[in-house]
Amino acid sequence: MQQNITFRNNPPSLESLSEGQIVFALAPNKGVCMYTRQAGQLWLSEFSKARAVKSLGNLNVKGNSFFDKTLTANNIEARSLSYNKFIDYRIFSHNFEYNLTTSSIFLPWQTASENTDPDMDDSRNAIVVPFKMTLHKLLFRCDRLTGYTSNITFSLVKQDEGDQVEDTIASYRYMDGLTEDGSHTINVSDWNLESGYDSATVDIGDKVGLKMTPETDPAGTTSWYITSVWKVEVDLS
Q: Domain limits at 30?
């Protein structure tokens, strides 16, 4: 028996189909759909001309779902969430108050103080990295600083697991001039990478510090508000 298959410009209704009839039609916001009447009910299946499949309505998955690549969503509401690997962004504050000179200082991670020693072997100046992390952004602002037109260099420094050698991964020479109470941003694409590094990234077990070097003395005690934003590749497996 030859199957009764037709094509229509508009979706059919249940009443317009006979039992077992198959109709292809253009459905609004869906594209081409196949409709059929079976056991007195209307059934449909959507088709896509591309590899990507879109669902404009609700999608209810009662079983497990597995994604080989990236899942991108505008909003995610989780009622019960279990995962081993994900990307997160973490924020650290490095605020301090100090009378800077032209000597390098390490930014504090835990306390509102800084270390003017030439190395990072001080508990205030470094953290041990728990996951692979990339310095996504560095924001800074200073108070009571007027007319400072000299440059300041910020550096990302690490000590590898098992040694105390300070390796500079990336640096940025801020040359735009600082204004009192003005905010300034160093983005991930702004960093000048040292040879052997393709990103401002540190790995598990590295001891990491942030260093700041003014080219001229800013003169006077100044409050500095500095925030680092890190892309963290969390792996709990």
A: 5-46
Percent of the chain with pLDDT strictly greater than 90: 32
Would you place residue 97 in the very low, low, confident or very high pLDDT band (cuts 50, 70, 90)? confident
Percentages helix, strand, coil for the chain (3-state, rounded to 5) are: 0, 45, 55
- Does 52 fall in a domain? no
Rounded CA separation 167/130 (Å):
18
- Tokens 């400072």 locate to 148
DSSP string, 156-170: EEEE-TT---EEEEE
Contact between 225 and 95 (Cβ < 8 Å): yes
- Amino acid letter, residue 39: A
Q: What number of CA atoms fall less than 13 Å from residue 16's CA on the CB side? A: 9
**Residue 80 included in any domain:** no
Question: How far, rounded to the nearest angstrom, does the alpha carbon of residue 6 sit from its chain's CA centroid?
Answer: 49
Instruction: Return d(Cα 196, Cα 185) in angstroms, integer.
Output: 25
Phi, psi of 236 (to 5 degrees): -100, 5
Domain count, the chain: 2
Other beta carbons less than 10 A from residue 219's beta carbon = 12
Q: In terms of DSSP bridges, do strands 31-38 and 22-27 run parallel, antiparallel, or are they unpaired?
A: antiparallel
Q: What is the rounded distance in angstroms from the CA atom of residue 108 to the CA atom of residue 230?
A: 16
